[in-house]
Amino acid sequence: MDLMRSEPMQLVQLIVPIESAHLTLSYVGELGLLQFKDLNIDKSPFQRTYAYQIKRCGEMARKLRFFRDQMWKAGIVPSVMPLMDEVNFDDLEAKLGELEGELIEVNANSEKLQRTYNELLEYKLVLQKAGEFFYSAQSDATAQQREIEARSVGDESIDRPLLLEQEISTDLSKQIKLGFVSGLVPKEKSMAFERILFRATRGNMFLKQSLVEDPVTDPVSGEKGLKNVFVVFYSGERAKTKILKICEAFGANRYPFTEDVSKQRQMIEEVEGRISELKTTIDIGVLHRDKLLKNIGYQYESWNHLVKKEKSVYHTLNMLSLDVSKKCLVAEGWSPKFAASQIQDALERAALDSNSQVGSIFQVLQSKERFGNFLRRFKRLWMHMGEMWLVYLVAKYQEANPAVYTIVTFPFLFAVMFGDWGHGICLLLATMYFIIRERKLSSQKLGDITEMTFGGRYVIMMMALFSIYTGLVYNEFFSVPFELFGQSAYACRDPSCSRRTYPFGVDPVWHGSRSELPFLNSLKMKMSILLGVAQMNLGILMSFFNGLFFRNGLNIWYQFIPQLIFLNSLFGYLSLLIVVKWCTGSKADLYHVMIYMFLSPTDDLGENQLFPGQKTFRFFFTHLVLLLLALVSVPWMLLPKPFLMKRQHEAASSQSYALVHSDEVDSIEIEADHDSHGHEEFEFSEVFVHQLIHTIEFPCHSELSSVFYEKVLLLAWGYNNIIILIIGGIVFICATIGVLLVMETLSAFLHALRLHWVEFQNKFYEGDGYKFAPILICNSRRRRLTPRPRLM
Q: Which segments does the entry list as coiled coil (predicted)?
């Protein structure tokens, strides 16, 4: 079947000895061709046989994620080393536990040392800044004392303070001693800190602050920020208690300080010495941690692959049924028919490598269940296009695959709406950047929009190539025409000149003329009708092939044939008139022809006649016959099929206890599936009207491009001013990228997607299946596992 339909599937049963079960599923998983059924669906995850092993795998995966986060913080990228010949899962579990314990201990010691280091740095700043406060205060006090003594020696003056003698004679033992608190507070909290202190102490305090120029790392939070060194002077224990609580509330770190200058110098020297020692110790610890993480990084990928593989194997083992004798496991699943020999080879290899005395049994079961849909994938373009259609619905088993056709029709219909070979080249260059650097970008974390664009890079490349082609047909390069394929047919105005049709695409003389908009709109509208009718005819034709493949006569006789007649008797006839008008150069009004075909099918067409036979045989072979065919096709689609399906279902229900042939069951299921969609065809004309409405979008892209070119770039060029020209060029580039290359690309993409999902696939694609999901273990790191002990 390859691309057109799903591969033929079969239900198989495996009977595997317990001693070789693990290795068997490992080898089968490397094939990726067997989807297992859950035979223990009535059991919870904790009641299954291998719940403990899955828990172990989950714990090991957690440790590996911890190692990955630590490597990411340290800037270490995991590398791949040659894999070992033998890998023991139990030894790996013990090793991961030891490495985690060692790394946690190293991190804890490093955090303690770093916190102490940051505290010493803050303490050093406090000693320096607070020492400056006290030195400045002592200097001022000494200068003031000298001034007072100098005044007391001189004669008494009227300016002399009255209480000076009393103040000097006061007993020093009765003077009040002030206490102080020193530390650092965040700069953004310093003003609020000062106000709260003032209010709490009712002004009975003195605060001195100094900004630290460089950012300081907080020992508690580890965040860098600007801080102020403060010293708060107070009187009394109550004031001290309030100040300490306020410091704690504002996150201010307090440090002890002495008034003795000699002790201050000694403390600064001690702090600097400890800082130097801690710096050396921290550097050694960082080197040890980096060395440990590098050793982990060398084997991280292989360990991670092994843990994922083991978890996948045990998860699948939990889906198998344990035999009563507890000597074997029974598995059921779906696989393609061509994979039977490969699965049997894997079973034989697993039995041989595990030294099992009994081999596994492989047998095919007869089943009426619906199988998963399995399509082989070859190229990346095919894979991305197929994934885009799986977003809509998954095809039913062996239903026709729409991606075979849409791989060409989708980018082509996009290009019909987007057509501009200048914009197409820009789109192609952006896509080629993603394709050339796909290996590097695939390993990086991209944004949501960038990741979406990167995922569809090959589809966008096809869209860009078709846009270049349709742009050459429209003769538009950023809305500017070029004579790429020769001179215009109207270059010579002399009647004696021989005029030849422009070789390829639209003649450039149409651009800028008065009739440009009517001509190009008429061309694109007529072309969109032809493409729409052709696309829907292809969808109806696909329904015929589906009915023929599934041997469903009801869909062929009462769905395919009336749909085909209804579509082509009206819109197929319109498409024929468009082609005839283009070939003959007739001036007939097709709107008039189609309107009077319904209102007065027997009237003379007059000047709207397109070909001579149309007038002579009008009643028999044109309007009247086509209208009758369209009229007959409606009840043809509506009435017979529901009654015939009802009769078949009644016959099937009366034989519910009899053996029914599989082909008949499939036919009944298919007809039942079609029953819910049968009445949608009665809105066929409305669907086509919607398609005609969306054809209005086809000329929009070129109109926007023309507006930006004429109203921005040419207008700026006319001012003969270099500044205005630069501004106009920037505006034109931004408008081209933002509106035409982004918004219009998205708009054309969505319209092309709707045309395929609604107008094309809706005619034949049921999409009620499910995707084939086999157990898949990457075999790019294939290794030979050591024989494991018995699992039970």
A: 89-116
Distance of CA 789 to the CA centre of its chain: 43
Pairing of strands 179-186, 321-322: unpaired
Please state, in angstroms and rounded to a whole number, the distance separating the CA atoms of residues 559 and 91: 65
- More confident of the two residues 350 and 136: 350
Helix, strand, coil fractions of the chain, as percent rounded to 5: 65, 10, 30
* Residue 625 falls in which region: left (phi positive, over 0), alpha (psi -120 to 50) or beta: alpha
Q: Which amino acid is at 615?
A: K
Residue 291's pLDDT band (cuts 50, 70, 90) = very high
Torsion of CA 519, 524, 530, 536, to 10 degrees: -160
For the cut 50, the answer to whether the pLDDT of residue 698 exceeds it is no
CB 683 within 8 Å of CB 744: no
Side-by-side strand order, sheet with 205-211: 205-211, 227-234, 179-186, 253-254
Q: How confident is the model at residue 301 (pLDDT cuts 50, 70, 90)?
A: confident
Evaluate if residue 116 carries a pLDDT over 80: yes
Q: 210 phi and psi, to 5 degrees?
A: -145, 130
User: What confidence score (pLDDT) does residue 505 get?
Assistant: 82
Judge contact between 766 and 673, C-beta under 8 A.
yes
Q: Residue 253's beta-bridge partner residues?
A: 184
Residues present in the chain in total: 792
Judge residue 760's burial from the number of C-beta atoms within 10 Å of its C-beta, 0-12 exposed, 13-18 middle, 19 or more buried: buried
> Is the per-residue pLDDT at 458 higher than 50?
yes
Q: In a 10 Å sphere around its CB, with 0-12 CB exposed, 13-18 middle and 19+ buried, how is residue 252 labelled?
A: buried
279 vs 1: which has the higher pLDDT: 279
User: Measured between alpha carbons, how far is 500 from 124 in angstroms, rounded to an integer?
Assistant: 92
pLDDT 10s digits, 734-743: 655 555 555 5
Q: With 0-12 CB in 10 A as exposed, 13-18 as middle and 19+ as buried, what is 27? A: buried
Buried residues in 195-210 as b, exposed as e (16+ CB within 10 A): ebbeeebeeebebbbe
Is residue 53 scored above 80 in pLDDT? yes
CA angle 656–660–665, rounded 5-degree value:
95
Q: For 107-144+176-276, CATH number?
A: 3.30.70.2750
pLDDT > 80? residue 615: no
What is the 3-state secondary structure of 53-97? HHHHHHHHHHHHHHHHHHHHHHCCCCCCCCCCCCCCHHHHHHHHH
**pLDDT tens digits along 752-772:** 767 766 777 767 776 666 677
Measured between alpha carbons, how far is 218 from 226 in angstroms, rounded to an integer? 10
Could you give the C-alpha distances from 58 to 51, 62, 291, 550, in angstroms and in order?
11, 6, 26, 45
Q: Which secondary structure element, helix H or strand E, spans residue 168, and what is its range?
A: helix 164-168
- Identify the residue whose tokens are 């650092």: 184
159, 147 Cβ separation under 8 angstroms: no
